[in-house]
C-alpha cells in the first residue's frame, strides 16, 4: 500500500509503518534518525530509543546506551522516590492534625 492509504497493521504498508488512531490508521513513510518516534516501526533504522528518537540500533553489549535511557531511568527513580516521600509526609501531617482536635460533644442537654 502507498502512503496515506488505510491500513490495519504495519505489514499492510509498503513502508512497514501503519500510523494513527483507530479507526483512522494510514500508511506513512518511516522516519529518519533524530525524528520523534514511539515504536521501532516508526524509524527507517527500525530502532526507537528510550528517549523517543529514531537512532541507529545499539550494538549488543552492556545495557548502557548513549540514547539517554540510563539518565531517563534515573530521573524516573528519583521522581518516584520524591513522590512516595511526599505522600508519606502528607499522610503524617494529616494524621497529626487529626490528633490535635478535641472531640465536640454530640449530646445536647435541653
From TrEMBL:
Keywords, alphabetical: Membrane, Transmembrane, Transmembrane helix
Transmembrane segments: 75-95
Superkingdom, natural source: Eukaryota
Name recorded for this polypeptide: Uncharacterized protein
Species the sequence originates in: Helicotheca tamesis
Amino acid at each position: 500500500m502507498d502512503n496515506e492509504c488505510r491500513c490495519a497493521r504495519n505489514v499492510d504498508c509498503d513502508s512497514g509503518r501503519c500510523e494513527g488512531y483507530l479507526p483512522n490508521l494510514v500508511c506513512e513513510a518511516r522516519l529518519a534518525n533524530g525524528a520523534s518516534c514511539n515504536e521501532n516501526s516508526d524509524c527507517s533504522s527500525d530502532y526507537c530509543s528510550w528517549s523517543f528518537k529514531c537512532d541507529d540500533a545499539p550494538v549488543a553489549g552492556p545495557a548502557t546506551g548513549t540514547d539517554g535511557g540510563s539518565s531517563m531511568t534515573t530521573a524516573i527513580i528519583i521522581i518516584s522516590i520524591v513522590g512516595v516521600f511526599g505522600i508519606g509526609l502528607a499522610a503524617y501531617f494529616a494524621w497529626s492534625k487529626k490528633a490535635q482536635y478535641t472531640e465536640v460533644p454530640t449530646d445536647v442537654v435541653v
